[in-house]
Specification:
The protein is α/β, with parallel strands linked by helices and about 325 residues long. It has two domains: about 5-45, Arc Repressor Mutant, subunit A; about 55-330, Rossmann fold. The chain is about 40% helix and about 15% strand. The chain contains 14 helices and 13 strands. The protein has helices at about 5-15, 20-30, 30-45, 60-70, 95-110, 125-130, 155-170, 185-190, 195-200, 220-225, 230-235, 270-275, 285-295, 305-315; strands spanning about 55-60, 75-80, 115-120, 140-145, 170-175, 210, 215, 240-245, 245-250, 255, 275-280, 300-305, 330. The strands form two sheets. It has a nine-stranded mixed beta sheet, sandwiched between helices. A hairpin with a 4-residue loop joins strand 9 (about 245-250) and strand 10 (about 255). Helix 4 (about 60-70) packs parallel to helix 14. The longest helix has 19 residues, at about 95-110. The two termini are about 45 Å apart.
Length: about 325
């Protein structure tokens, strides 16, 4: 039988008042070992309840397995807590994007250096990334794809570029232009506009970039939405299964040439390939096949994804010994 009043008093001083076990022991004239036992008992008897309010953790062994298997330099695997009713948190696309964006922000904050030029595409994970970035070394931020909405000045991707630039005290280079234009001539005219050309000219200077990896034909796919039904069938016949920054990939990792490219405002596939650090962010249903295809292309140097997708990538690649014991680190929401 424990002394609940004493356990509560000890716990209050330790957890709320930040007193050391030595100071608590001196105050109550007991040994510090008894203080430790009382703290353990306070948790065991529900006097103290410890809640972890961040519903995501980092799975380090899975990240290491992906790093080694695919030859990546940076991998973060996020384990999402179960949702209400026992439903997997990974099933909520908004939650997935939020925490993958948070993890990507922490990664970029660690690897970014002063003078970098950071590229961002218009994916939802990148929007979440920009909301989580608090501090970066001084670097410019470049928008890699045109706007998908109607409000060019206040689109989410434009806001993401501005927010990220503010975090590093660098310059923002947004693209005030639609992703897809009605024809190649209109696209060419827009590319020659001074403010747009200024951003396009910086594509070749990008040293690190964060891009979403989408399953093609999924909801919100900019390329899919910009194509006619006939064009969609054509590219489906070519085996299109993944999309990155306005480019399609087949399951073998090959970029599928598209006539659409002549009327889009977007970074080129060859320019993406020359970016020294290209971090792909993707998770949730249908993402494993898309990520697998892009990994085969050799385009990515880093990946941020969720546990379910990570396991699917390893299993589909024939890895039987998928890590099941993990070191856990909490991913905290910045801000």
């Amino acid at each position: 039988m424990i002394d609940k009043l004493l356990a509560a008093s000890v716990a209050r001083r330790f957890y709320l008042d930040n007193q050391s076990k030595v100071d608590i022991a001196r105050e109550f004239n007991i040994s510090r070992f008894k203080v430790a036992r009382l703290l353990d008992a306070a948790v065991a008897h529900d006097i103290v309840r410890i809640d972890i309010t961040v519903p995501a953790e980092i799975d380090a062994p899975l990240a290491q397995a992906l790093t080694e298997r695919f030859g990546l330099r940076h991998v973060v695997v996020v384990r999402l807590a179960a949702g209400e009713g026992g439903a997997p948190g990974a099933g909520d696309s908004r939650q997935v994007n939020r925490w993958l964006g948070t993890a990507a922000a922490q990664l970029v904050s660690e690897i970014a250096e002063e003078g970098d030029v950071l590229g961002l595409d218009g994916s939802r994970s990148v929007e979440a990334f920009s909301e989580s970035v608090v501090r970066l070394p001084s670097c410019d931020v470049v928008q890699l794809t045109g706007v998908h909405g109607q409000d060019l000045a206040n689109d989410a991707v434009v806001a993401a570029v501005r927010r990220t630039a503010e975090a590093g005290g660098g310059r923002a280079f947004p693209l005030y232009a639609p992703f897809a234009l009605p024809d190649a001539q209109t696209a060419s005219i827009l590319r020659s506009q001074p403010s747009i050309a200024e951003t396009l000219n910086r594509f070749g200077r990008v040293t690190k970039a964060v891009v979403g990896v989408r399953a093609w034909a999924a909801a919100g796919s900019p390329v899919y939405e910009a194509l006619s039904d006939e064009e969609r069938e054509t590219y489906r016949g070519f085996g299109a299964c993944a999309e990155v920054a306005g480019h399609l990939f087949d399951e073998g990792g090959q970029v599928i040439p598209m006539e659409l490219g002549a009327r889009t405002i977007s970074v080129g596939a060859d320019q993406l390939r020359r970016v020294p650090e290209l971090i792909g962010v993707s998770g949730g249903p249908r993402s494993a096949e898309a990520i697998g295809a892009v990994l085969k292309s050799g385009l990515l140097s880093g990946l941020v994804t969720d546990v379910t997708t990570a396991r699917r990538l390893l299993w589909s690649d024939g890895v039987d010994d998928v890590p099941r014991v993990r070191d856990v680190y909490v991913v905290e929401k910045a801000g």
